């Protein structure tokens, strides 16, 4: 699968086919998919929990590979959830960035790690 | 932003610019981004925690909108983490799907919610 | 350890000794302990992610045992975090219950799964 | 509630009463309680996500208070889940510590942040 038009769209279709072949739809309620997604997000975090921030910026190759697969797991559930709920992921992400630009205006947010309601 | 070539690529660049404008790179260690991602995954899950599976399959419009924004938040951190670690998200997802096909062969996994090490 | 005065107190001391013996204090910043706690909470959730709510109310004995150990893991990190931050867990829990009683008055909250800011 | 015999036991009873008064038992399947617990664990983690480890070791008083309440939330759901599943939390924690002592023998685990299967 090395087409130059590879995209979330193709991944979405491949995942729908994968689950249908295995008759997994009954288990794939949005509630369950959201649970599975958060479990994968925690498996991703687990790779970093005892590392310092500096160590996390310089991962050895094998660790980076394991982390890449956890990130893939998160994306796979995110895409399946977007199918189940008929949510356009990229469109939602773009709209959220517009909101974030208002919540974190450059002049007030620069260099700050403070949450928007305390800016 | 309604080009037919909209993709993760453009989102990645927009996010890099957003963070650079705000001088947020010092806070964006992979360790911190992984934490933020799991926090957003939990905010997504929170919308479903008291719903039944059937209710989760029939979300009212306002709830679906809120959920779409949480999914966007997860994607935004996933993309920022992929930049920080130089991980190709779609490529990792495709490779993971190949692995998953081996872990869950159709004949053995059909109709089953059992984890691969117990199949 | 089967004294009738067994309590969180004794667990707290046993954990402090366990970590000190292994020179783990440098890794046990509150930031890291909070990460580890959320990772364990997700491992607990993983046991339920594909089960229905009814199945979760009738766990087979081996599954219940595995779940008990995940709950233990969560408690162990919660206690270590309370030591690191000098937080009295039971006292905080009691104060939080007083707050919860105000957020969810019986007459308005009865039979409802709605969050307090929407009651 | 300031008895010197305050314990998890009393908290357990108080929580059972609180939920019964509000007719919340239908929502409190173990599956849902485990979800709620992981959501609270993430709210706890959120307080630390942009802090450095050193900053997390020196929290200002107001931040420490907010964190104490999140820890309380985690404990409250952990206790409710232990009631729902009839799991003795302290006993499970003690048994898990015995297992952990075997997984992380002092001589091999000292000063190491490596997971037991890589020790």
From TrEMBL, chains A, B, C, D:
Pfam family, one: MazG-like
GO MF term list: nucleoside triphosphate diphosphatase activity
Biological process per Gene Ontology, one example term: nucleoside triphosphate catabolic process
Stored SUPFAM superfamilies: all-alpha NTP pyrophosphatases (SSF101386)
Secretion signal, residue range per the UniProt entry: none
Record's keyword terms, sorted: Hydrolase
Keyword Protease among UniProt keywords: no
Xref: InterPro entries: dCTP_Pyrophosphatase, DCTPP
Full protein name: Nucleotide pyrophosphohydrolase
Organism: Aquabacterium soli
Lineage start: Bacteria, Pseudomonadati, Pseudomonadota, Betaproteobacteria, Burkholderiales
């Amino acid at each position: 699968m090395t087409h130059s038009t590879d995209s979330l769209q193709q991944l979405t279709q491949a995942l729908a086919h994968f689950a249908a072949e295995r008759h997994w739809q009954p288990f794939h309620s949005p509630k369950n998919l959201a649970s599975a997604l958060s479990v994968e997000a925690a498996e991703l975090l687990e790779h970093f929990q005892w590392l310092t921030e500096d160590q996390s910026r310089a991962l050895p190759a094998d660790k980076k590979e394991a982390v890449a697969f956890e990130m893939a797991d998160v994306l796979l559930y995110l895409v399946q959830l977007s199918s189940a709920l008929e949510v356009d992921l990229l469109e939602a992400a773009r709209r959220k960035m517009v909101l974030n630009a208002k919540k974190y205006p450059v002049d007030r947010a620069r260099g700050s790690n403070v949450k928007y309601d305390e800016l």
